[in-house]
Amino acid sequence: MASSIEVSVIPVTPFAQNCSLVVCRETNKAALIDPGGDVERLKQTLSDANCCLESVFLTHGHLDHVGGAKVIADAYQVDIIGPHQGDAFWLDALDQQSAMFNFPLTQPFRPHKWLQHGELITVGNAELEVRFTPGHTPGHVIFIHHDSKRLFVGDVLFKGSVGRTDFPMGNSAQLKQSIVEQIYNLPDDYVVYPGHGPTTEVGYEKRTNPFTASTQFG
Questions:
Q1: Coil, helix or strand for 84?
Q2: Is 144 exposed, middle or buried (0-12, 13-18, 19+ CB in 10 A)?
Q3: According to the model, what pLDDT value does residue 3 have?
Q4: Which of 5, 17, 31, 66: disulfide with 55, CB 3.0–4.6 Å?
């Protein structure tokens, strides 16, 4: 039986990072994807949604995506899941990232579970596929809910753009490979929830994104 989800996008931090609240309609259990900050706002969103937070999922280790994760996880007694272990060095340097970007101090932490390509994670009865998508960071992952044709891509792909690769251990060729092999192989009508900016669709980006325009699709 297909599971249905509701998705709410909550921009957080001065970088307007899209934190996504994913709620399983059948169980009312929920996950927050990339709670980067503005914790009180996120708590209010959870209260307004009248859902039961089950997990925190992280796509990668950059501060604007993880800055509120530990506070939220501790407050609701839930696990932090993800990203891939390749981003351990980013999580270990959260205090340095805080100083660099003039954010409130965030102490380093480790998730309860690192993720691997091909794993399935759950929100209530809803299953999300994990795909390993390095390039923006070496441990970046994305989450795909096939039943509703939605994917949560962090900073891999944006509407009309792609993630930066000028941070430590970024790799532009690897990022493009991740987009083509892990996102563009999905059906065109899959809806993309990026870490910044508006939603888009896989087919639209395949046809129009200038950063992958040289790639041929047959």
A1: coil
A2: buried
A3: 79
A4: 31
The CA distance from 164 to 161, in Å, is: 9
**Which residues sit opposite 7 in a β-bridge?**
22
pTM > 0.85 = yes
Place of tokens 């430590």: 168
For residues 67 and 89, is the Cβ–Cβ distance under 8 A?
Answer: no
Region for 114 from its dihedrals, namely left if φ exceeds 0, alpha if ψ lies in -120 to 50, beta otherwise: beta
User: Tens digit of pLDDT for each residue in 148-182?
Assistant: 999 999 999 999 999 999 999 999 999 999 999 99
Query: 175 near 167, Cβ under 8 Å?
Result: no
Q: How far apart are CA 143 and CA 141, in angstroms?
A: 7
pLDDT at position 213 is 83
Contact 69, 95 (CB under 8 A): no
Is there a contact between 60 and 85 (Cβ–Cβ < 8 Å)? Answer: no
Give me the residues paired with residue 132 across strands: 141
Do residues 125 and 26 touch, judged by C-beta distance below 8 A? yes
Diameter over CA atoms, the chain: 49
- Count CA within 13 A, CB hemisphere, residue 117: 11
- Residue type, position 140, single letter: H
